[in-house]
Amino acid sequence: SAEVIYGKQLAEDLRQEMKQEVSELHKQNIFPKLVVIIIGEDPASKSYVKGKQKASEKIGMDSDLIELPEETSEEELLNLIDRFNQDRTVHGILVQLPLPEHIHEQKVIEAIDPSKDVDGFHPINVGKMLTGQDTFYPCTPFGILVMLKRAEIELEGKHVVIIGRSNLVGKPVGQLLLNENATVTHCHSRTKNLRDHTKRADIIIVAAGKPDLITGEDIKEGTVVIDVGVNRVDGQLTGDVEFESASEKASHITPVPKGVGPMTITMLLHNTIKAAKQIHNHQ
Ligand code: NAD
């Protein structure tokens, strides 16, 4: 049966390394700092931002959490972002999505200085990723790439089938793997005969948000299975893959929880440290 890839363990190892790097930077008078802005009271979003702040603190990195009421206007938010863009002590700015309906999400994303866009959502950074340049990569896709590399899974020439085409996960993870010379197929909700595609995958990345969408029946022997899904079923956290049946056929598989999830915040910390170093090198 499959080797289980624990993102949680890798995330802890990486964060330990980052903690040392932050303390080295402090000695050079560089104090990496992340600002997280959240609007409204969505419990899931609240718990995500708390996690981000706690993780920052744990590696000794400064972080500010700005909690704004649901009725905050778009203009107020844009002004605040502009203030942090100008603030030389701030290196990373993250606005937790989704935003309330009266705020134009794309406008907000584009207001963030690309050199502080640690989520990697600004079109300039997306374009850099598309053209194979070094930049801030979106955290979940980047975390998946790092996991695959650390597990020494070969990517070049491999057929990667991705289920999902969101701007957050599906599209960027495909791009990052294409940059690694994989052959990439994107499937989505309008794809016909999904199983015909998944059966041909060397690596399958499932990011659909549908519990048990993929089972052992859907994959061939020896497939690497990355489960990005986070679903709550009867109060339990579960992914998009039926773990039991899939792990009988897979060569490697990520669990939910303790798989991809912990890597996401880890790459946010990585991006913020990277931003701090770049900003200081340019001063
Ligand atoms: P999304 O809803 O924006 O996109 C889902 C994608 O899956 C769409 O492109 C859709 O076409 C496709 N899809 C849906 N049902 C399908 C089906 N039956 N067959 C084929 N394709 C189908 O979601 P998202 O933001 O991309 O997130 C996907 C999942 O990953 C969610 O469960 C989310 O909670 C999770 N997620 C996890 C992390 C993490 O850090 N672990 C981060 C982001 C998202």
TrEMBL record:
Domain Tetrahydrofolate dehydrogenase/cyclohydrolase catalytic: 5-119
Binding site for NADP(+): G164, R165, S166, V230
Pathways involved: One-carbon metabolism; tetrahydrofolate interconversion
Gene Ontology molecular function: any one: methenyltetrahydrofolate cyclohydrolase activity
Quaternary structure, from the entry: Homodimer.
Function: Catalyzes the oxidation of 5,10-methylenetetrahydrofolate to 5,10-methenyltetrahydrofolate and then the hydrolysis of 5,10-methenyltetrahydrofolate to 10-formyltetrahydrofolate.
Official protein name in the record: Bifunctional protein FolD
Organism encoding this protein: Halobacillus yeomjeoni
Gene: folD
